[in-house]
Design brief:
By secondary structure, the protein is of the alpha/beta class. 30% of the residues lie in helices and 18% in strands. A ten-stranded mixed sheet has the order 7-6-5-2-8-1-9-13-14-15, with helices on both faces.
Length: 337
């Protein structure tokens, strides 16, 4: 029995896509499955040869040639985005979308962009996910199995996820956004997304039997960021982020990511309670300590980073098993559990 859930502890943009790709390659995963809301969150991975991969619909596990990819039934699908990634990444022979996924239409996108509350107050990405989710709840949305562009790739992802996990082949479930953006758990409502973003929500999105889950990797960004509205503890100015060389931009919208100077340990403890991590991936270490940029050996870990690891482990009760030290896929240090 083997399924690993990858979940973001805070507000997203923590490098879940890189962790998914790295784990798929290292463990030769059989299947990587996208959980989460839909196309309102993106993942970016830079390969060691400098190729930048950006995805909004499909999980990045396909970077391992032997890993098949799928989209769980709880995830909204935009046929145009799906087709673009299918073609760009050449995945037609190893992709599955659940036939029950609700479909995002151009009308959903137009409705979201015309909604002043969503765009100005909430800080929505304008990708149509909110209106599509509302139509799904009201049982008005179309489904992937009935859509001409999606039907050839449609099937029952829940059956496949549980079959593979029960056969002791690894399934990786890649969540989206972050725990503190969860619709029902965020303290910042209405500045939240349109569903929950916890480990349990990810399992629900893909139909995984909880008995088959073996690990929850909670991704913790060493210097958190947030796109859109809502509070960000210990936020620094955009000018300060630029001065330090740690400015970031969102994958989906290109908007600047607001940056924090350090972790809020109380919020990290809350995220731990909700997600139950068994392992921690500590990411963007090079923003926290630029001297570690690109490091790939544990001998390079500085005293400051070791102190940070200790604080994170003390709060989460889980071992830090992965350090992300730079933008390339191989810029990681693996640590023993």
């Amino acid at each position: 029995m083997s399924a690993t859930i990858i979940v973001d502890a805070l507000w997203g943009d923590s490098g879940k896509g890189k962790v998914c790709a790295q784990q798929s390659i290292r463990h030769d995963a059989e299947l990587a499955v996208r959980a989460g809301v839909g196309t309102n969150a993106g993942a970016s991975v830079t390969t060691d040869d400098g190729r930048l991969i950006k995805a909004r619909q499909l999980p990045t596990g396909w970077l391992n040639p032997g890993t098949r990819v799928a989209v769980g039934s709880g995830v909204l699908v935009d046929p145009e985005v799906f087709a673009g990634e299918l073609d760009r990444f050449d995945l037609a022979d190893r992709v599955l979308v659940d036939r029950r996924c609700a479909v995002i239409t151009p009308e959903h996108i137009a409705a979201e962009r015309a909604d002043a509350h969503l765009m100005a107050t909430v800080g929505s990405t304008g990708t149509g996910n909110g209106p599509a989710r509302a139509d799904f709840v009201l049982r008005r949305a179309g489904q992937a199995g009935d859509h001409p562009e999606l039907a050839p790739y449609a099937g029952d992802v829940a059956v496949e996820v549980n079959r593979v996990a029960a056969s002791d082949r690894l399934v990786i479930i890649e969540g989206s956004q972050g725990t503190l953006l969860s619709l029902a758990f965020s303290a910042d409502y209405p500045c939240a997304t349109s569903d929950n973003c916890t480990s349990a929500a990810a399992m629900d999105d893909v139909g995984l039997n909880w008995r088959l889950a073996t690990d929850v990797i909670m991704v913790v960004k060493a210097m958190p960021s947030r796109v859109g509205e809502g509070p960000l503890p210990y936020e620094i100015s955009a000018a300060e982020a630029q001065r330090r060389g740690i400015a970031e931009h969102g994958v989906v919208t290109g908007r600047p990511r607001r940056k924090a100077d350090r972790l809020d340990l109380e919020l990290l403890a809350y995220a731990t309670m909700l997600n139950g991590p068994t392992k921690i991936a500590l990411t963007f270490i090079d923003h926290f300590d630029p001297s570690m940029r690109g490091a790939r050996d544990a001998a390079a870990i500085t005293p400051e980073v070791r102190q940070l690891i200790g604080r994170v482990e003390a709060v989460t009760g889980a071992p830090v098993t992965l350090l992300d030290t730079g933008h390339r896929l191989g810029d990681v240090i693996e640590l023993a559990a």
